[in-house]
Amino acid sequence: MPPLPAEIFKAYDIRGIVGESLTESIVESIGKAIGSEALSLGERSVIIGRDGRLSGPVIAGALARGIQATGCDVVDIGIVPTPLTYFATHHLGIGSAVSVTGSHNPPQYNGLKIMIAGDTLSGDRIQALRRRVEQGELASGTGGHRTEDIRPAYRDRVTEDISLKRPLKVVIDCGNGVAGGIAPQLLRDIGCEVIDLFSEVDGTFPNHHPDPSQLENLQDVITTVSEEKAEFGMALDGDGDRLGVVSADGSVIWPDRQLLLFAQDVLQRNPGAEIIYDVKCSRVLPEAIAAAGGQPTMWKTGHSFIKAKLKETGAALAGEMSGHIFFKERWYGFDDGIYAAARLCELLARHPESPATVFSGIPDTVSTPELRLEMSEGEHHILIDQLIKSARFPGGEICNIDGVRVDFENGFGLARASNTTPTVILRFEADDRSMLEKIQAQFRSQLLSIRADLDLPF
């Protein structure tokens, strides 16, 4: 077998441009590797779900052919959000699944999020699929194929778990992503009055990109909340596993703030529980978790890394700054933007104050959005490795679990290598603007001492 394009094998998933780095034959080969790996671990079937991208049927078809060619069976659950693919593994009792999704990448992309025998693949286990193909370590057989509709079971499971103390008027923007087919109605089923935006699944994403981590993609939901006098608004990403939230006054409740509210809620029922958050989150978060009687644990960014840590520790809840929220309490421990939206509604409906008042009670800081230093492939890892070796931050506490995070008494700074693009991700937060600038100045001088020609974004 000729070598597969190395660049599609990312840290958390497989992703590429359809027809270029991600062709039918490449996906079929990867399907053979997935089927072989599943069989080697005693699995007999693999579930396939896909998002609403135009290339979905072709990519999912090639994947199914590859998996079946190993003798492994395929269970096709059709067009569903990624969390429903994960849910299907629990509901059907099948430990392996692939979500065919380009997540929030542009329309020409597609990809594979892979779970085998209950573990979401990341890092070396994704590379191992490539090695399996290139070394020809592939099983051979004729697997079966059947279809299942998992949506009614998911709806029933959520509505059994969640009901609202009072009705809430909310806006939900699905950004023409795959969650549009299920999220608005599910919120109505639990007791919300819902104004929904862009719920028609359309893989060209004609209104805005379905990525709620970017402020420009939240403008429609912010405007509609104001016009409709809704209590708050929510937005989902292209495959439904990430949540964005906006208050009635138009301010964005970033995911580390969402996680703070969820943690306080979960800890009321589970005192002393461990709560996991990624290195990009506010330092306000661990302080609030500890104050609520919880045990805060910081971990690497990446949905598969967080999921593995959740499984390892038995934590009740985890979350990432990118918007992935993982509930283990009352749920299954996978990232699910739709379920997180329902839990947020439940939490806010129980409060005697308005959602705006609850949101405004979250401690405020001065912070930057995620800043990105674009580099050539591989250079970003070299820069961060050098920074780890040479870092000198007087008055700061350095943590190297994922890049360089430095916590000061009044703020923090972070520089880490992205695992999905050749980019250094930077983020800064402080109690006030002058402290923020001091932290940035320290990072600036450390980075420029390694490479004086860097075009820093701060």
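(the above was protein one; protein two follows)
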Amino acid sequence: MRQAGRIGQWNDDKGFGFVTPNGGGARAFVHVKAFQVSARRPVVGDLISYDTETDAKGRLNAINVRFAGQRILTPAAALRRTPKTRTTPMRTPRLTIAITFLLVVIALAVLGIMPATLALAYLLMSVASYLMYAFDKEVAGRARWQRIPENTLHLLDLLGGWPGGLIAQHVARHKTVKASFQRAFWITVVLNLLAYAVLWRSGIAATWTEWLLG
């Protein structure tokens, strides 16, 4: 039987929350993908109507979710309406950008155009950044585990780990929705490129390479 309830908890970064039925009873897990065609994302306090189902682990999930007052659309009507109401933001080709950049960096280092220390720094920091993003994603839903502070992720990206950060964002679908994080992330990318360019053009990176290679 269809129920009406209010969203009492919502994590927009993760895209899920919980809804409590108006008449009382068990709250249900609700994912953003369970909503029917909508031009906006849910927020705490939204009134919704929904059906429920129990998953394989015995958890109560809300399905076929609609905002209060939203009309039921037939499949044909939904298809006609989707191009007009669905707002799909342009996806950033994160994986393509990251892999292309790393391949270019490696090629420049092999050809002797870029100091090897810069290429090595990008590779090592990218691995570190990827692992931190992956760990943060893994523990995001576990209350007992301490998450990685966003400032730590930004610092790793600033030091050259942003290609790994991009790969992790693509693979784990992590930190891709939160606008404030994405703004800060791309600022660190620009600052890193500028800083590494200075190290390259000033000869400092070449000096480091000579010192490391003896």
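Reviewer note on protein two: The chain is about 50% helix and 15% strand.
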